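Here we describe the complex-level prediction in full. Unlike the single-chain runs in Section 2.1, the two entities below were treated as one system.
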Amino acid sequence: MALLFCANLSYGQNNLGANINFAFNNTEFKKVLQDFSSKIGLNISYQSDIIPKIKISGSYIDVPARKILQDILEERGLSYRVLLSDQIIVEKSLVKIFDHVLSGRVQDTSTLEYIEGALIVDLLTGQAVYSNEYGFFSIRSKNEQLKLKISYLGYKDQYLQVDLKDNKYLIIKLRTNNQLPEITIRSNVLGANESDGIFLTKEDIKAVAAVLGEFDVVRAVQTQAGVSSGADGFGGMHVRGGAYDQNLVLMDDVPLYYSSHAIGLLSMFNSDAIRSVKFFKEKIPSHYQSKLSSVLDVHHQDGNQSVWNIDGGLGILSSKLMVNGPIIKDKITLLVGARRTNLDPFLKEVTSYFNQLNGKEGSSKYYFYDVNAKLGFDIFKKDKFYLSYYQGKDLFNDNYVQLIPQNNTLSTIREFQNLTWNNQLISLRHQRDFSKKLFVENVLYSSNYTSKLSEINAIKFFNGQVVSDSGLLGKVTNSKITEFGFNSTFDYLVNKYHTMKFGLGYSNSQFSPSIFSYSESDIEIQDILNFPKEVSDSISKKNESNATETAIYLEDKIHFNEFTSAKFGLRSAYLTGKDINNIVFSPRFSFNVKADKNWTLSFAYDRLYQNSHLISTNSLSLPTDIWISSSKLLKPQTSNQYSFSIMYNVTEKWEWLTTFYLKNLEHLVHVKEGAIFEFNNGVIEDQFVIGKGKSQGLEMSLRGKPNRHISFYVNYAFQKSVRNFEQLNKGEQFYYKYDRPHQLKLGSQLNLTTDFGISYSLEYASGNPISLPLGQYPYFTIDSDKPNVNLLAFEEINNIRLPYILRMDCSVFYKIQKTWGFQELSFGIYNLLNRKNPQFVDLVIDPFNPSKLKYEQVSLLPILPSLSYRIHWKSK
Amino acid sequence: MREIAKYLFLLSTLLLGQCRSPLDIDIQDSKSLVAVESFINPAGKLYVYINKISPIGKLSQAIDMESTSVDLYTDGKVYNLEKLPYNGFSELTFSHLEATWTEKTQYELRINIKNLEPIIAKTNIPKAVKLDMFDLFEANRNAGSTQSVKTKVTWQNNAASSNYYHLIFYKANYIIGIDGKPVLNTQKPIEYLNMSEIELQGNENFINLTHEPGILITSSDTTINNVSLSCLLKTQETINNSDSFFQIYAELRTVSKEYYEFHKSVYNQLKNSDFLKNADPVPSYSNVSNAFGVFAGYSKFSKEKQF
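The structure predicted for the assembly as a whole is:
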């Protein structure tokens, strides 16, 4: 019996050992096994549920049958054993299929800058991943051989054959595509490990028409559906009807508290130095510090590792210069860029002239500047260090003296206004590739923001030789934030279906707000002419508060199969504020389903919190707004957002996205009605009331690239954003000041050649609501026997909607290529239609009826042509 | 060349400067069409001033005010107020010239205007708090300059009555008549005095009003009893000769919450008069249903000193 068994075993093995020819083409797996069984004369038994229902192809010539069987089965996670003389049992493999991992970085071949968002696809299996913000990627496969296609817009596609036996870590260098710049179309690639959010490149930013010759990141983000500025033409970013402070704005991983120059005409980001921009308004990753509306994550270039580059520009508003290159080639890089306004001397002349016409002496002044610097160390194989610095300042000053001769005396009026705001950011970043599957980034940072507004009015009036009135009234508004923090984030590729991100973060923010007024009486003329003198601020110390956040976070992306994927995130934080501490949990969840190759459905939920409040008493998001930390009375704001999206690939060149969302907000803060907004005496918190908010809407986007010359987008949003405070508006709900029911944005870029192109954009938006009095009525004071004061009758908050905004911008660029680089001339027109879009409303006396008032709308930005010149020089 | 450059940049400033145009929207009609102003106190007559709201940017709606009636309800009694002749300023003025009012918890004003919802407002007259001390010192009576004097007043907080006060200083002006005796200066019998360098002790908050003389005071801590205030009083009057002298009054009004909130909101509204540009608007407080305005009670206590 035993001999027979051995002989039988031997017979089965001999059959498997024989060399055979065996071929199959697009044949059912089950049929292949049947044919193979016939070929070798052995029965093959199996449980039908382990056999994959797929078609396979293969061709073997003079190959041992055993090898053929092994090949066919192993790839599908199966194995075999021989039983008796003619029986082969096929079963699930107990041996774990060994996964090969390829990781590496994607770089620009000429600058050696790491490229974020490059798409790496294994053409053999269809698996695809994106490179992260540091160019790092990791891809797993059961095959030893990979056939990769790497692509990124603006660059030529690259194809690579990789043998994972030799190459487990790869640096991929992409060459720029000399063809036409494109607007991004981020299509939904099958099985892609796509990042959520919106990616913008330099080309996307430059596709949006410039204002006064300056391209701008925030302006490009404002073209997205559901994102608006507070007032036409001005920056600020209001996402789905949210407030300005509800956006987390990051510059190289450091939070910015006020990110605009010139009260919103430009952001603080130098568009020449930008490497990548990511924007999230839902599915917000949990490794970001939490804010209620959005995250704008901007990274500057690291510096060219191979050659020196100089970029300069001259425009109507400002001039700029940027130098970047290798201090030691491929090892240490430096980037330094600066911008400054050109307008100073002219503004002074013009305002001085107008003042003189009105009998005043003095002028106005405005300037801004910013400086970016970055030092990169790539001297260790696995570790990279970057030291970044940013400094930006704006100053506005209005100063005049008016002398009024009266009966041999000289009465004096002096008015002085000085507004400055500064940002200073420092960060040290460290990146390390621990292994093919594990990447870490550590960031240590400091962010300082200050704003100060000083207003002084002084008078000295004479009645004959006697002083009839003399006094000085001053008001100072300060806001100061000092924050330092640390974040450590790990990227881990668990397997080809599963990636994780986890880490911890800490931030410590000190808020020092103050508003106070002061007065002097019986001042001398010399004092009027010689001020301003420094006034000590004893209030900010009183109102100082500290807020800390210690957080751990985890994100898990899972691709269940080629049709469904999900992302789970959790941010858990211990928050402290003024007399408050609590633990918050912020879960986020999203689920995607590919209904077929063109349709994708997505559902997301985000619970967000925010440990600070921005107190704004106007609709323009001015730098004079006050930041305060959460406290016992003013708890951290929270929101729950639900969104549902449908994406449809109309064709390969057109993509349609529709999103419905609903957001509920709690612990919102608003200034009390009749609050005395000065902190001389009381506690800040007494000036505010707490309430709720709700925002809901529909967003639709259509993007297309019909051919290589033209690209096009249309974004529409319908939105309703309301607030509810028991102590305001008689407890009734009112429209929030950033509510804009309809927003339509469309734009196109036409590139006739690589050197000549035109772009235009059109924006329509409903007017935002404001509070207008509906009438006035007289009031008798004690010291008068007739009405001497007119009071304004307000009924509701935000009862009137301003007229709609309509604006069209266009720009043309012409590039002259040179051996050393290029020169570029741009001509643009802002507000081509010259429509008087309302900025705010003023109450003035009706010239035809001086006893009555009337409304006038004030518009600030009419048609504005601009010309700018740019030069790029590259060393050999 | 310099001139050309200047005009080029003037042009650019014009382009960049503000453009003003009429506001092109249809502003809704106000729900409330009238405003009421009335303050009731034991020491004076009750006047009720009624005015139409004057719409901004559009024509007034027609209101038939001929048959308007005003009644005051208190202690189960009804006082019908009498319509006074048109005074040139107020659309309608009503008064009850005979009745006197006492410190009470509830007064209710009811106004009926044809085709409008009934207008109702309620208030109380708090019990008057007395000044314990009123001193004047360091007077500045130099000829040819503004006159000033320092003052100090104290009183006992009475939370049971009210926690709100309006403190006013004024002077009665006398001149020496032909017969050598002091007579009231009929051209300017009373002048309200400016208050500055105010120091208020006792955990109090104050507002130095700009639309009315005096300051509003409230205490956030009702357990604190003693209130002490010192300040500098100034007058525009200058000394021409030694014939005139001053008699200064300190008037402490103990006011109802409506009185305090109304004046505080008016102060804020006037202070934030450029609200449309860069601040949230401040509605003026109203305790009148179906109308704007105020009906508020107060009582007062005065002390005088001469210098």
